[in-house]
Design brief:
The complex is a heterodimer. Chain A is an all-beta fold. In chain A, strand 4 and strand 5 form a beta hairpin. Helix content of chain A is 0%, strand content 59%. In chain B, strands 2, 4, 5, 6, 9, 10 and 11 form a 7-stranded mixed beta sheet that branches. A 4-stranded antiparallel beta sheet of chain B has the order 1-3-8-7, with no helix packed on it. Chain B is globular, with a radius of gyration of 13 Å. The chains are: A mainly beta, B mainly beta.
């Protein structure tokens, strides 16, 4: 079993739709939870970062963490064509003195105008 | 803040040659930098972790003699792919560990390596 499971998609939605992206994990040691956005042929860009259960909102993006269920989500409201990208969930814990990050496989999202 | 650059962005080389990729943290000092490899339609795979002034720690299955990592300063880490072969063709991405604005890794834009 992988430490982090993420549906690879692809996920195709019409412009303006609410998008829900999800990941599950098995390692209870994970302390920090991130969502990265990666455009084709580019490095990942940090979108959301949280370390506690609950919701965190930033503009059209809401990150949700449920540590009891080992489940995290990213919601995108009023999705735009420019949101089309691969979204990677990531989780980290301290290992050997630094934050070691484990990534999901990424979900490819396409927002259709 | 937390900007990481990588150079070159793209390189094409002949089989058997060595290629050096630079990773710089532009507006913060990074004690720890990370090197990842990403094959098409796959997630990032950690290759090694480098700490400034000490030897890199390689993940299982990554040849340390083939992928030489040097972290000479708090803002620069280099990855050298020695005697590159076509199977080394991939997207190489570095990241730098930061404490602000968030305590996480910030990624460079990546280097696409094509070995002919």
């Amino acid at each position: 079993q992988k430490e982090v499971e993420q549906d690879p998609g692809p996920l195709s939605v019409p412009e303006g739709a609410i998008v829900s992206l999800n990941c599950t994990y098995s390692n209870s040691a994970f302390q920090y939870f991130m969502w990265y956005r990666q455009y084709s042929r580019k490095g990942p860009e940090l979108l959301m970062y949280t370390y506690s259960s609950g919701n965190k909102e930033d503009g059209r993006f809401t990150a949700q963490v449920d540590k009891s269920s080992k489940y995290i989500s990213l919601f995108i409201r009023d999705s735009q064509p420019s949101d089309s990208a691969t979204y990677l969930c990531a989780m980290s814990s301290y290992s050997g003195g630094y934050q070691k990050v484990t990534f999901g496989t990424g979900t490819k999202l396409q927002v259709i105008p | 803040g937390a900007v990481v650059s990588q150079h070159p962005s793209r390189v094409i080389c002949k089989s058997g040659t060595s290629v050096k990729i630079e990773c710089r943290s532009l507006d913060f000092q990074a004690t720890t930098m990370f090197w990842y490899r990403q094959f098409p339609k796959q997630s990032l795979m950690l290759m090694a972790t480098s700490n400034e002034g000490s030897k890199a720690t390689y993940e299982q299955g990554v040849e340390k003699d083939k992928f030489l990592i040097n972290h000479a300063s708090l803002t620069l880490s280099t990855l050298t792919v020695t005697s590159a072969h076509p199977e080394d063709s991939s997207f190489y991405i570095c990241s730098a560990g930061a404490t602000a604005p968030e305590e996480t890794q910030y990624f460079g834009p990546g280097t696409r390596l094509l070995v002919l």
